[in-house]
Design brief:
It is built from 6 helices and no strands. It has about 240 residues and is mainly alpha-helical. InterPro entries: T4SS_TrbJ.
């Protein structure tokens, strides 16, 4: 029996008792039953039941609130961080394993000074010019090879990124609380950042290859000038008889 039904029954009893006692004539010899007190007791019982009912409702509301809090604090049972870090590590390793000029300021500066001089002196030999030309050609070819290997590595990562994206979107849509939704959003943001870093790495490798090829062509002009000066300086130019 619910509290509302019980209150209704008690109210009916109160009214019934009041009507019955109003119809009875008081006996002068004895007073055993006090209808007024009886009605007051019943009313107090009704009020007590109302308080209990209010307390039950309050406890029910608190239980719902706690359940919602627990749901909002539930952690997302999905993490793609390890895969993202692994993918970026592979890209970093490919860049570290560059077969031509390494992706460091020191290595680049040393290579420029050795094989890409601004100007050759008059004492330069043919063997030096030939060795530098071969080295510049190897640098350019290695740079393009590094770019292609980096492209292959990024293409491999894209496949795993697609699977991670599907999982994260599904987790975000099925999040049961604020924390799960936020964690899914954070991982989606991290995935986007990873892809941007991959693109930046690829652009760096591509621009590096193009720069080395352009430097090789520019250096070929300087080498041609040095060869001509050397040829003229040795007096080997053709003279008409």
């Amino acid at each position: 029996m619910t509290c509302t039904t019980l209150r209704a029954v008690l109210l009916v009893l109160c009214l019934s008792a009041g009507l019955v006692m109003a119809c009875l004539r008081p006996a002068a010899a004895m007073t055993v039953f006090d209808p007024t007190n009886y009605v007051q007791n019943l009313l107090q019982a009704v009020r007590a039941l109302e308080q209990i009912d209010n307390q039950i409702r309050s406890l029910q509301n608190e239980a719902v609130m706690l359940e919602n809090m627990a749901r909002n604090l539930e952690r997302l049972d999905l993490s793609t961080l390890e895969g993202m870090v692994s993918g970026l590590t592979r890209i970093g390793q490919l860049m570290d394993q560059a077969r031509g000029i390494a992706f460091t300021i020191e290595a680049t500066q040393a290579a420029l000074e050795q094989s890409y001089p601004e100007r050759y002196g008059a004492e330069v030999t043919h063997d030096v010019l030939l060795a530098d030309a071969k080295q510049r050609w190897r640098d350019a070819m290695s740079a393009y090879g590094d770019t292609m290997r980096l492209q292959a590595g990024i293409a491999r990562n894209v496949e795993s990124d697609q699977a991670a994206l599907v999982s994260l979107v599904a987790a975000s849509q099925g999040a049961v609380g604020v924390l799960q939704a936020q964690q899914a959003a954070n991982q989606l943001l991290a995935l986007s950042t990873k892809q941007q870093l991959q693109i930046q790495s690829l652009m760096a490798a591509q621009y590096r290859a193009e720069a080395l090829d352009a430097a090789r062509k520019a250096q070929a002009e300087e080498q041609a000038r040095a060869s001509f000066d050397r040829f003229m300086g040795e007096g080997k130019a053709y003279r008409a008889q």
